[in-house]
Amino acid sequence: MRLDAISPTRAPLTESIVPQWRAPLLQLALAWVALLALFAGEWAAMMGHWWSNSTYNHILLVPPILVWLVWQRLPELALLTPRAWWPGLVALGAALLVWLLGNISGLATASQLGAVAMLPASVLALLGPRASYALLFPLFYSVFLVPIGEELVPVLQMITADITIALTHLSGIPAEIEGVFIDTPVGLFEVAEACSGVKFLVAMVALGALIANQCFRSVWRRAAFMAASVIVPILANGVRAWGTIYIAQFQGIEFAAGFDHIFYGWIFFAVVMATLVGAGWRFFDRSVDEPAIDLAEIQGAGWITSLERFAAPGWAVLASLAALAIATTAWAGVARAVEAPLPQAIVLPQVAGWEQVPTEQGWPWRPQAPGADRRLFGTYRSASGARVDVFLAYYAAQEEGREAGAYGEGAQPPGTEWRWLGEAPAIDGGKADRLQAVGVHPRLAMTWYRHGDWTGSSRLELKALTMRDRLLFTARPTATLIVSAEGSGDAAQAAISDFIGAIGPSGKWMDRIVGLD
């Protein structure tokens, strides 16, 4: 019996890859596995939003779209030679920094954006500028993996309300508007968060970017189509809200609400989307059989050749990439462990000219700060009878789930009947919000934040200060103060102003309660 020598053969998948791409693709695969593992928390959170939040369900289509976009470019990519490029580590460092800032400050959008940006940055580092330029649009399109857009809800609510009242008046229906409430002869309508149109807008922007790249060559036509992809959904949502009010005048509110969910929810926006694409169709200037990329331009680009002088060994770049990622996660771990000490028990202090009294409210109101380490709530009454409700929240550190000024927290408690109507004149640098419950209970609320020696109302400034301190491992507590009075006119404004005048500088007052002053 004779055994014939069996010569080794390549796996079919490896054999299908052109030789110059085999090692770079292996290095890229290893880098992506490492990055996905190290930053799995961000990816798990994002996928949770994709699956469970209807605003972001369309993102489930983005990964297959990215695969398709790369597949389109495979014939041209096979003719290129990828070269690892050490300046690409700068791009990776920037992505890691964005993640770090978001992670240590509790800004999920930043940490998730950083996690996504690491993938195209690693492409640049391990495949080089020429291959990355060939993959430019897919790398850009990966940003649509980040679930972002719900922050626009309050702005879109107000825009929708303005469009709706204008169309209501044009259609001859008498109506009055206050914030997001529109009062008509048949009843009071609210432009709720679900009616803001943010779901359609973010999905349309993602679709618009894809169509602009695939169907247009002209930069100006692409820009025009993208502008239409933003403007048309906003206008269409205003028409949708007006249509509901218009139908209600003749068929009743219940019929209009049902019609809105069935027709406008499923049909109207599909028609709008088809109309927008159809209107742009006649301006498409890119043929169907045109290659996805201009190979001759990429191969002959002198500026890319000059950049490739900074090429480096792929395994060395991969090792540097891993070291940067591990060092960044270690830094974040140390920074997150830094927390400021807070007393076990705190109480609302006495205020000259005011006394603490039992809380009595026309409609229940209490801000929410579930991530705060210490919370206080009480009511003060002045000698003249003015009453204010005071809410204080203290945080030993700022991170995901423990954020002063986070979306959904603050003066407007989510999941309640309270709605935001607009801003009011500020007092002592605070942010003034006009609120209303069930259309008949107005309230004015003034908010301040305190971090270190800074007192203000800017959430962005607060985030920046938090990032600075945690990057430097500096422990400082953060506080939120909300002073509110029922009503929305001069009396409520005067009551809050008088209370702030009685406590002195609001920042110092917040510090004294926890023993910092």
From TrEMBL:
How does it sit in the bilayer? Answer: Multi-pass membrane protein
Primary location group? membrane
Membrane as UniProt keyword: yes
Which Pfam families does the entry link to? DUF3485, Exosortase_EpsH
Sequence ranges assigned to domain Methanolan biosynthesis EpsI in this UniProt record: 322-506
Write the protein's name.
Exosortase A
The UniProt record lists the keyword Transmembrane: yes
Q: Which NCBIfam families match?
A: 8TM_EpsH (TIGR02602), EpsI_fam (TIGR02914), exo_archaeo (TIGR04178), exosort_XrtA (TIGR03109)
Q: Tell me where the transmembrane regions lie.
A: 21-43, 83-101, 107-126, 191-211, 223-243, 263-284, 315-334
